[in-house]
């Protein structure tokens, strides 16, 4: 046994393996909460082109809550209504129509397309803005040990990962025409890196290291499923074609197959192309990648687009893959090791969903681990990661199966006796639309989701459904007329938010109800300690882990900011009154998105209001009426750490 | 006479003195056209807080055409409807109402507020994205010589500026809590700088060096006007106050005076406060700045806001100034030296207009100088800078005078016999609104603006007025359904654009008109050389200085991209068809801003269309019908350099 004197041992609270979309999203939370964390990535540089590109509605909403939506929106290409081309007479193709998803009216954001590399850039910039966490690249993981017997000791480091960092002399391949912000980052990183061996002791590990996840294998978690016999090629090119819809999202089917066209930023268009079917007897079910070339992919596109022309001079990226559907039976091991993204579910990339589901995995596990590390939440909440996300991975694979059949089934015109597969597929698309756009999360009952036995919202707030998102509404800041979408107000800053829909305080009765709630929240009700002071805070954080946000329904000029109880708009001796905590659901003549109909959208009575808890990841955890302070306390008591009695002011418990 | 062996002599085409808003906007054009230019600035660091903050509608539109609007929009605070508070009974203040400007419906952008320093940051980033131009800081100008006799030699360097760069050891004052992007810039700059003396020989100089402009003084251009006797204080603070509209744009008047409240980003609020009237006999009309302190300014705010409270702990910036109104009789000297921004017009800052007018000065002179340097335009166009911008500076001072009276006139309630000065002022505000929001430019007849003797648009395009902007409309890219505001399509990329409103090509007659135009533009009409090939190009530039943009009025699915003549959607052997050149004025169900009413807004017949030339700065230069190819050629011949005959293909002239 050799002794290596050069191995450094270091400690971190959270080790994230892999800096793709899911890893960076998990790291976002570490940055926001100020958690001691490291992000290691085996690749020498970040991704610059190709890979995932679809961004769904809900992902845009989450970006907005993270404060980065404007950058994505500026660079991305939008593609809303997918079209369908089918064989016409005499070998022609005809435009069969296009589909406008119902969800398009539910959100200010639409289906967007942008290079995974740019999404990662924007995420990295956000992480850097909030913390000193930097992605460490060129890091090879060599061994992982996980001692589950230490799980119950919050001070223990049950995870041990041995890593090696490659030397900076190693040549790095960098694409030409790199954007300025990518280039500056590479220079900075290359200045920092040095070859070393290190053993990282961690309290938690989050494996986000892709379909061939090293972490998953080290944890002995199987990856169940199989590869199909279908092999696909993908090319990102600047097309030279006379096909009129070459820059429209859609499918084209003829008797030789179906291709998917995805228009992109920078004049790029992506083509998903069936390349061949593997002859199982000769290849053991695996295809030989070297057999597939951009030229072959091009020839297939030409065959399907015929009689239209197709060629290209610029190819930004290409790959070939064998459709496989795999899912890990569990996304966690013990209470300290978690897996996210492609590490636990892989599928055909054509649905444009993978990056979204992966980021939302990271978004789901990140805040939970961070709150437990910080001592603010009970480790029991960690098990909700698997229950909440597993169902979505299953749906993803389920939906993907329909697409696989659609794309690999040969198309014949209905006139020739073929079923119109587009009509069939549209029904499937509609059935899964809520899931695929991310507007439904299906998060079930758990300590974090109080459903009270029903799957809708309560009668007084029919569209506020525990386990689901809040329907976007643009609101008006009472004190300064800022017009802002609810997602951006409901910031992903790490806090639980008691959203008080205060109703119409022009009604004296309603004002009294709001005042009573304010009295309680201020801690003035001796028999009921306020949820704003009851729980432990993030060490080094700004204050209470539970914050408030009030949205009332009176016209802005018939109620005053100071009419609301002080606990809903607290005073800070330096920063002044909490102006950004009181919002108004009142239409604005110069901003027609501010329609004053948020209460209606949420199914809430404009006079009586309601209240709900929004989890840090912007899903509704609990819904109640303004009097339900015992219920909301019980909900939060279920997983938040209460302050020691001695800390509670006035000694009330 | 001492001989300095260390003086380097260097050459540049354009020397910009001053890196404030006007200098950076002029530099933007140098970056876009690839002109050899330098930007020198005497301050050691850029501005980080305070100074100008108002951004008007038109400035946002120009930012959009420059591709930077999203960043400004993300960081800025909007404040649309200014409110007015006046004395009520018994020493109270009452909210008198607020004003919604009519212009608010004319643009997707509203009145915004953001620190000048952040605007400069965003401009600098844009310049860097397009060029290697870096602002050189800590540069002291020592002497300027301008030999006007060399004006007519395009290869001569009539300007000679001696500069000295201070050493990097000099201590730099940097505010705490600097944003990451500002900090990285400082580090980079400090690594680069070295002390040196240098003589810069330049073909052109643009002096953007502020109210005390060194350049203006070296050019012996007077600065006419005077300081008033009124001294004002300005503070940027995080207010602690129980005044309900402390975060709303507006004025508060009581018998002791009027203050202006301007809400800002980062919880800041700016207060403009009359501090005192100078006793002319003892101070020679100049105030002693040391006499004014933030404490004194605070006391004045407290007096006027009474009975409401006012205090602060955070003060981000403050200054005191004496209201002065000055204008230079000319904004140019000879044909090689120009002045922009505060260097030629100063006024009270309270109108929130100065930065806008200054940036638009830079935006106006920059492209003109660049095109002349590049040999593409006749130097005669340079005289239009003075004629176009002088009128606006005059309007600025005119408008500002009303505000000065408003703010320095004591307010009494009308019940006490005082006129309601708010009612009077609102009339003034309305009268000047088109000017102040920048939605009218008043650019008069010149080689660059062909007005044909009328001040409106022609009968077939009544709202397309030469010398004015294009009313914003959101359009649909024909080939890919991108929904984009017209400002962003009409990019400030340096080209003249022939905007072809192709009308409805479902009409055979109209299609024929469009085809005839396309035939001409393709250079296929031997007797009329196409404006797309007739003129010299920017050396090293991508191609023709005149580009096209087509907006048709048929529904997207009743016309095809390939129905339009090839010259309107040219094919590039690498980049393919010009998909981004054909747009559609057709309403979109999922984007209600795309209302399909652009033609109506522009006063153009939906079937017959029209065409117009957009100058590089997004002002209309010429308007005509689709047949008016001789007229548009005559307009462009008036100032663009024709290619030598030998270069013209087919030998036609």
Automatic annotation (TrEMBL), chains A, B:
Domain Phenol hydroxylase-like C-terminal dimerisation: 443-643
Keyword Oxidoreductase: yes
InterPro entries assigned to the protein according to its UniProt record, in alphabetical order: FAD-bd, FAD/NAD-bd_sf, Phe_hydrox_C_dim_dom, PHOX_C_sf, RIFMO-like, Thioredoxin-like_sf
Record's keyword terms, sorted: FAD, Flavoprotein, Oxidoreductase
The FAD-binding domain, residue ranges: 12-148, 191-397
GO MF assignments: FAD binding; oxidoreductase activity, acting on paired donors, with incorporation or reduction of molecular oxygen, NAD(P)H as one donor, and incorporation of one atom of oxygen
SUPFAM superfamilies referenced in this protein's UniProt entry, alphabetically: FAD-linked reductases, C-terminal domain, FAD/NAD(P)-binding domain, Thioredoxin-like
Pfam families, alphabetized: FAD_binding_3, Phe_hydrox_dim
Keyword presence, Oxidoreductase: yes
Entry's family note: Belongs to the PheA/TfdB FAD monooxygenase family.
Protein's UniProt name: Phenol 2-monooxygenase
The species this protein was found in: Penicillium angulare
